TrEMBL record:
Origin species: Camellia sinensis (Tea plant)
Listed Gene3D superfamilies: B-lactam Antibiotic, Isopenicillin N Synthase, Chain
This protein's UniProt keywords: Iron, Metal-binding, Oxidoreductase
Name of the protein in question: Non-haem dioxygenase N-terminal domain-containing protein
A Pfam family matched in the record: DIOX_N
Chain ranges of the Non-haem dioxygenase N-terminal domain: 43-103
Classification via PANTHER family: FE2OG DIOXYGENASE DOMAIN-CONTAINING PROTEIN (PTHR10209:SF460), OXIDOREDUCTASE, 2OG-FE II OXYGENASE FAMILY PROTEIN (PTHR10209)
Lineage: Eukaryota, Viridiplantae, Streptophyta, Embryophyta, Tracheophyta
Keyword Oxidoreductase: yes
Gene Ontology MF terms: metal ion binding; oxidoreductase activity
Length: 120
């Protein structure tokens, strides 16, 4: 089992969590927070506004680990198709996904990390 999805699907990851992390996961948040939103349209105007968006993006990465980009111009159908394709890929067996493991950095289609497990 080489993938994070495989680890999560197995339920094994619970054994790896530290007690403090388990407590954080099990406890309910004291106040409801929404995920950070990044207004992409604001990056192409006033330099001060652009700087703030860049700073907000960095804060979201540091504090949350992710963010949601809105007003980016990508059509909803394309986003839905990408989500379906991703789900389809990650639902494959490890063997099937292995066919997409990148051997070269610039392979047109790649899966896996930048490390070659056979070498590293």
């Amino acid at each position: 089992m080489y993938s994070v999805k495989g680890l999560v699907d197995s339920g094994f990851y619970h054994l790896l969590l530290r007690p403090r992390v388990k407590k954080m996961i099990q406890s309910s948040p004291k106040k409801k927070q929404s995920q950070p939103l990044i207004f992409f349209l604001l990056t192409s105007g006033d330099p001060d506004q652009r700087s703030k968006v860049i700073q907000d993006t960095g804060n979201a990465c540091r504090d949350w680990g992710f963010f949601m980009v809105i007003n980016h111009g990508v059509q909803e159908k394309l986003m839905d198709d990408m989500v379906k394709a991703s789900k389809s890929f990650f639902d494959m067996s490890e063997e099937e996904k292995g066919e997409y493991n990148g051997k070269q950095l610039f392979d047109p289609i790649r899966s896996g990390t930048s490390f070659n497990v056979l070498v590293d």
